[in-house]
Amino acid sequence: MIRVLLPYHLRALARVGGEVTLDVQGPPTLRSVLDALEARYPMLRGTIRDHLTQQRRPFLRLFACEQDLSHEPPDAPLPGAVASGAEPILIVGAIAGG
């Protein structure tokens, strides 16, 4: 099971608590985790990734094991601690301004 922590606005949209657990088929990658997340919570489609390009939305970041995974290839394997369920993936809303 993969653990995912969602930011407040996505938790409210999906009507879930702070953490969700996902059963990911095949090797755990960012793509497979986000596919499983969107399959289980269809209301999140288009909020984390663009519908057409599947690119991460610019103001969302993905972290795990104290690493920024936001710019990793979507099919790169996730860290072992995430794959085992020991550590969660954090989806964090970035802040911009001037």
Topology:
Blueprint: E1 2-5, H1 8-14, E2 19-22, H2 30-40, E3 60-64, E4 67-68, H3 80-83, E5 89-93
Parallel strand pairs: 1-5
Antiparallel strand pairs: 1-2, 3-4, 3-5
Quick gist of this model?
This protein is of the alpha+beta class and 98 residues long. It is built from 3 helices and 5 strands, in the order E-H-E-H-E-E-H-E.
Task: List SSEs in N-to-C order.
Answer: EHEHEEHE
Which shape, going by the Cα principal axes? Answer: globular
Mean pLDDT, to the nearest integer, reads: 93
Q: State the separation between the terminal residues, measured CA to CA.
A: 40 Å
Helical stretch tally: 3
Q: What class do helices, strands and sheet pairing give? A: alpha+beta
Description:
The protein has 98 residues and is of the alpha+beta class. It has a domain at 27-78. Helix content is 22%, strand content 20%. It has three helices and five strands. It has a five-stranded mixed sheet, with helices on one face. A hairpin with a 2-residue loop joins strand 3 and strand 4 (67-68). The protein is globular, with a radius of gyration of 13 Å.
